[in-house]
Design brief:
This protein is α/β, with parallel strands linked by helices. It has 28 helices and 23 strands. About 45% of the residues lie in helices and about 15% in strands.
Length: about 750
Amino acid sequence: MPETRTESESRKLLGRLRDALAEDSAGQARLDHVVNIIASSMQTEVCSIYLFRDEDTLELCATEGLAPDAVHQTRMRLGEGLVGSVARRKRIINTANAPAAKGFRYMPETGEERFSSFCGVPIQRLGDVLGVLVVQSKAAREFTPDEVYALEVVAMVLAEMTELGAFVGEGAALSARHQQAVMFRGTVGQEGAAEGRVYLHEPRVVVTNPISDDPESEAKRLTEAVETLRVSVDDMLADATGGNSEQTQILEAYRMFANSKGWMKRMLEDVENGLSAEAAVEKEQSLARTRMSQATDSYLRDRLHDLDDLSNRLLRILTGQGSYTGAEMPDNPVLIARNIGPGELLDYGKKLRGIVLEEGSVGSHAAIVARAWAIPLIINVKGITTEALNGDPILIDGDQGIAHLRPDETVKTAFRDKMAMQARAQQRYASIRDLPATTLDGTTVALHMNAGLMADLPSLEGSGAEGVGLFRTELQFLIRNQMPKRAELSALYSHVMKAAGGRRVAFRTLDIGSDKVLPYMKPNDEPNPAMGWRAIRVGLDKPGVLRMQIQALIRAANGRPLTLMFPFIAQLQEYDAARAEVDKALERERILGHPIPEKLEVGAMLETPSLAFAPDDFFNRVDFLSIGGNDLKQFFFAADRENERVRRRYDTLNVSFLNFLEMIAERCAASNTPLSFCGEDAGRPVEALCFAAIGISMLSMRPPSVGPVKHLLRRSNLHEVKQVIDSARSEGAQSVRPAVMEWLSKQS
């Protein structure tokens, strides 16, 4: 084969492929014709196409040059052999001596030992590998850059046509895409179960015309679309002038990519070689996503993310779809997105039945809103945005972190049975809604709810909660593009107090940092943000915001009782400094003649083990303490709650952790300091029962958990539970859970 290929030859190859793909033939016949065309055009003895039959197994689906009997019989695991290595690494392998190459696997049924040269190219769409395109020759030589480029272009077209169902046939590897039942596993962001239909936050742009025979026209379309994109980015930058620096930096990165000569040159070359403008953009986008998935540097990953977003904008300009494709929101929408900000999520309102994200974290903005709405959320669900289509049926099991996309009838039946059981249980809990959580031995446990939005407050009446044990004030900061004004916050807090109808509301001051970064605040690139500059540390270092928020709360109270607490206090001095800001604000309000709260409680959240060992003076000074269970548990076990590998290893009812909580309860009892437990575990009935048994008499949880917790407490004897716990500890148990569960099973 000649060392170089002319552009007309590349276009000729794509033209022959287009004709083959347009034929009215079955998927297998079409695929067989394709490998024949590629081998003939590339002048190679072999061309083979391998496609995934499942997420871990590649199958030989068509070949020209290898043994025909090997088709649909030869299979290999992801990473196995040279073909499996191409798929796993998403990188081209080009070698003159395949049998000597690292990882080569000999497959005698194919007869491939006769061929020395090997070039394998991933067939991928937007970073999602669908298979591998391979050419082989007897002559020992590496394929030229021009030949490799031609194969990349062909692989791009094959990916698009596979996506569009051009190769549907018998067997798993040729099954139609987006029609099979798929189960996805992710991380639990918010518990609960929901059945509904997919609604994509970012509608997918489908490229239906990957090949063009008019390069000049396509180049003109591409050039005009990029110019439109550049103007829109310039307009966004002009609008952002004077805004926050982070937003400006992102837009500057957008402008840099939009004006990148290299990006434009590569796309124009693809168009010249026979791709449509849309396919050229998507080819670059696929490469960017592949690099993004392999990048370890966070800065590079962010920049590649910018390029990916810019490519989406360009595709929408080219196709005329915009951000709206005409898909109507279904009656029971389950939102599917790569990620989503709090403002965008709040725009959807509480009509969502569930949320599934490819990215996200358990402490992210989306998780906070999902908890506030009490709707199931699953995060870190890789691949679902490329697999799901608008309107697809989907089941969300937030308790297990599982999403069933296009489930079969067996899965649907089991899932609906589970939801029916939960509904019957909620009906049972409704009957005890207005009754106290008084145990059989006469101990009354105060059950409060967590909130963060005005929309949460109606749940206070219906849930049976006695008050709000935690009102997250950061949501009002996170959903805005600029700092809210004091008067706005004061009005909001006043509405919250009125909606609570005189019940106690504990306002937690701004808890930002870690994974909760304000849109208008420059993020700090910290190696471990969960243990970095966050919460009260930010408030004390930037006291203006803390003072403004305290003043807003005092004015919102307008003479009524006020309860506020500071997050992430690690030592006495931090509490004293924060409390001093409250005293200053009170004095200032007195001077201005504003009403002072008739009763003021100032507490702290115990989220760091260090605070449990604070001097007695701290416990005497603080008005109340609230254990922030989610953070305290991760720091106690040194197990990041964002890391699935480690967070599930440690049980809340582990003896060590329970002993630690009991020590805190004893210190609070000795100083008459009211103590509560706030976090996910407070809403789990068995954990709540054990907390009450060791002396924690106030629990704060999401509204739907109040009923189940109250139900178990009202039919339990805390003295007996404490005896079970003590007995398990004395016997050397690592966790008291088995003993408590056994005791519960024996109760009538």
